[in-house]
Amino acid sequence: MNKKNKSDVRGFIYSTDPNFNFEPAQDEILETLLPAKQPLRIKLDSKHRAGKAVTLITGFIGTADDVEKLGKQLKNFCGTGGSVKDAKIIVQGDQRDKVLQWLLKNGYSATKKI
Questions:
Q1: CA torsion 75→78→79→80, rounded to 10°?
Q2: Would the CA dihedral through 25, 86, 70, 61 be positive or negative?
Q3: pLDDT tens column, 59-114
Q4: Would you list the DSSP string of 29-85?
Q5: DSSP H/E element including 97
Q6: HSE, side-chain direction, 13 A CA sphere, residue 72
Q7: pLDDT class for 33, splitting at 50, 70, 90?
Q8: Domains (ranges, CATH) in the chain?
Q9: Which carries the bigger pLDDT value, residue 110 or residue 12?
Q10: What CA–CA distances, in Å, run from 67 to 36, 62, 82, 103, 108?
Q11: pLDDT level of residue 28 (50, 70, 90 thresholds)
Q12: How far apart are CA 95 and CA 74, in angstroms?
């Protein structure tokens, strides 16, 4: 592909409108809900992980810093590794019971899926 046809950083290649002005989408600033109002779901997942099971916590509504903090607390409580991606907390292994216990103890309302 030659330089003339390459898209810019925002994905636009060419516009025929002489008055076109790109306006980037504004990201919504999410406020973190109270723990009792968080609709967290806990499930066991092994898809795309070479058959290894992980506990997946989804449904967190809030800032990226708060979900990182919650993920770190859960991983420390379970004594395992994991990560946080796209507002989903991933804890290595089948830790559903421990995670549910910790969330309920700390005021979160969580539902456990199989």
A1: -60
A2: positive
A3: 999 999 999 999 999 999 999 999 999 989 999 999 999 999 999 999 998 787 76
A4: -PPPPPGGG--EEEEEE-TTTTT--EEEEE---S-HHHHHHHHHHHHHHHT--EEEE
A5: helix 96-105
A6: 6
A7: confident
A8: 28-112 (3.30.780.10)
A9: 110
A10: 15, 7, 13, 13, 13
A11: low
A12: 10
The whole-angstrom separation of Cα 23 and Cα 86 is 24
Both tokens of 109, joined, read 């309302």
Give the Å distances, CA to CA, from 12 to 2, 40, 59, 60: 15, 37, 33, 33
pTM over 0.90: no
The count of other CB atoms within 10 Å of the CB of residue 90 is: 19
What are the tokens at 106? 């700390």
Residue 41 has pLDDT above 90, yes or no: yes
Answer whether 59's CB lies under 8 Å from 38's CB.
yes
Interstrand relation of 40-45 and 54-58 (parallel, antiparallel or unpaired) = antiparallel
